[in-house]
Amino acid sequence: MNPAEMAQSALPVAASADVSLIALFWQAHWIVKGVMLGLLGCSVWVWAIAIDKIFLFARTRRSMDRFEQAFWSGESIEELYRTLSAKPTHSMAACFVAAMREWKRSFENQARSVAGLQMRIDKVMNVSIAREVERLERRLLVLATVGSAGPFVGLFGTVWGIMSSFQSIAASKNTSLAVVAPGIAEALFATAVGLIAAIPATIFYNKFTSEVNRQAQRLEGFADEFSAILSRQIDERG
């Protein structure tokens, strides 16, 4: 058979091959299907975490803005403490309440060690900041894991799919492009799904890590300022 006749004979096969995304998924090996389903599930999880974090960081920024506005408005810190201590607080307000609670507890117990009081106040504010940072960082490890491992998981599905394609070629003893292309397309589809999961995960992880650092620095700045205010009051009482 000459090349022209071989090309003509391959046309019906190529025309009948369905290479749509849904068809590629259903025609793939079951292991490749499992890889793609797992990666799609990870992609949905990544977007759910991202949406939750976007709203969380927005709420935290608004909470910090409201607290700073109230704190620097000239209102008595005792009155502000009574207002905030009556309800659960997060972020900067939690740091303030923890410091004020330690301050009031120490003076109620007739503490006389000024250096010890200052150290305890700094300690409770640092613990409060650490808890807030831990709250903001929750589930970011999932984004880092999907972003780093997703392409390799997709590549595993690709390698397995190509192996299955070559086994089919060996069984059919036909190496025409019409026979090879669908199997390779199924395999490469797994890599594409891996990238679909990994790229947003990496972008969101970098963005949210930067946001956590920014808010942590803002908390630490407030803690330093409030510690200085309490230190002056400790000196006055001393």
From TrEMBL:
Where mainly found? membrane
Gene for this chain: tolQ
Q: Name one GO biological process term.
A: bacteriocin transport
Describe, as the record does, how this protein assembles with itself and its partners. Answer: The Tol-Pal system is composed of five core proteins: the inner membrane proteins TolA, TolQ and TolR, the periplasmic protein TolB and the outer membrane protein Pal. They form a network linking the inner and outer membranes and the peptidoglycan layer.
**Keyword Transit peptide set for record:** no
Q: Does the record bear Transferase in its keywords?
A: no
Keywords assigned by UniProt, alphabetized? Cell cycle, Cell division, Cell inner membrane, Cell membrane, Membrane, Transmembrane, Transmembrane helix
Entry protein name = Tol-Pal system protein TolQ
**Which residue range or ranges hold the MotA/TolQ/ExbB proton channel domain?**
118-220
Its transmembrane ranges are 9-28, 34-56, 140-163, 183-205
